[in-house]
Design brief:
This protein has about 300 residues and is α/β, with parallel strands linked by helices. The chain has 13 helices and ten strands. About 35% of the residues are buried. Bound molecules: iron/sulfur cluster and zinc ion.
Length: about 300
């Protein structure tokens, strides 16, 4: 297999794009494509202040690397979840993220959930009885809240996450199985700023997971290979496996599934439930918008464990 650009030996082949590239040209192609998606979906410009949510995994570190290469103003944010049984997932991913930032002279904000709110994620999950086996719903709630808080307090107007095509297709698959209209409406490369919350963007949403792995490996980014120990056996991993089976027999199926969805969404196939919009108001403690009567679900949880 030869590189389509220079004819040298290819390092990576993308069946679905009928494209093989050598290392050098692959490392050019990924940022070029990212720039194309940023423009196509109107994600941000070089004037915007971007906060990249970095977990120490290949996607978020690659995203940060690509945005810096492309000349965007992108700082990082790492949220310490305190998930440290067995493989020391949190301490190891924090170490790798800090090393990544130091080596490149980038600004990284570290938020430690336990220091900030008195409890780690597993402790919060246990005390609130919201998941003895899996703290994922608590974890998602805390991560969302903290990302919004840091972006607002430090004046970032764009929040970028490293979700790739496999992540997006799996979420889409789950939401489609249940025809979740409101979720479907909100899923996409850009969620506009609203109610004091920063705009949310996913610049890697059209890259296959294996494309991002190749990018991280070929560019020598050191990332955490292990997944969070709680990810094992999750529904989203099961959906990813199903979609991978489909992709094996029909290369490109995953991308088509996602892109056709975006088209349908643009064409107004999904609508917000009116009561959701009407009931939005700021939380009386933290100011983030909520549909709950007084405190948002994050603040209610923190009150409960005090
Ligand atoms: Fe949080 Fe781990 Fe669950 Fe992901 S898998 S939501 S990091 S607890
Ligand atoms: Zn609140």
């Amino acid at each position: 297999m030869k590189c389509k650009k220079c004819g040298q030996k290819a390092s990576f082949n993308m069946r679905q794009h009928k494209l093989a590239l050598c290392r050098e040209h692959y490392l050019e192609w990924v940022p070029e494509q990212t720039e194309r998606f940023i423009k196509k979906y109107g994600m941000f410009t070089r004037e915007d202040r971007i906060l990249v949510a970095v977990s120490g995994g290949k996607d978020s570190l690659s995203l940060w690397d690509i945005l810096i290469r492309l000349g965007y103003q992108a700082d990082g944010m790492y949220i310490g979840l305190g998930i440290d049984g067995g493989i020391q997932y949190s301490s190891e991913s924090q170490r790798l993220t800090q090393e990544f930032a130091e080596a490149r002279g980038l600004k990284l904000h570290v938020v430690d959930v336990e220091r900030e709110h008195g409890q780690s994620i597993p402790m919060l999950a246990m005390k609130t009885h919201r998941g003895f086996d899996k703290p994922c719903s608590v974890c998602g709630l805390v991560k969302r809240h903290e990302m919004n808080r840091i972006a607002r307090d430090l004046g970032y107007n764009v929040l970028a996450t490293g979700h790739n095509l496999d992540d997006e297709a799996a979420v889409l698959f789950g939401n489609t199985l249940a025809w979740e209209g409101t979720y479907l409406l909100r899923q996409g490369p850009v969620l506009p700023a609203a109610d004091g919350l920063a705009r949310k963007v996913k610049p890697l949403c059209r890259f296959y997971e294996r494309e991002m792995t190749a990018y991280a490996l070929l560019s020598g980014i050191e990332y955490i290979y292990e997944e969070c120990p709680f990810a094992e056996g999750s529904t989203s991993i099961y959906y990813k496996e199903l979609l991978n089976q489909l992709e094996t027999t029909r290369p490109g199926a995953k991308l088509t599934f996602y892109l056709r969805f975006l088209e349908a969404r643009t064409n107004g196939l999904f609508r917000e439930k009116p009561e959701v919009v009407q009931n939005m108001h700021p939380c009386s403690k933290c100011g983030q918008s909520t549909t709950a009567p007084d405190l948002c679900s994050f603040c209610r949880m923190i009150e409960k464990v005090k």
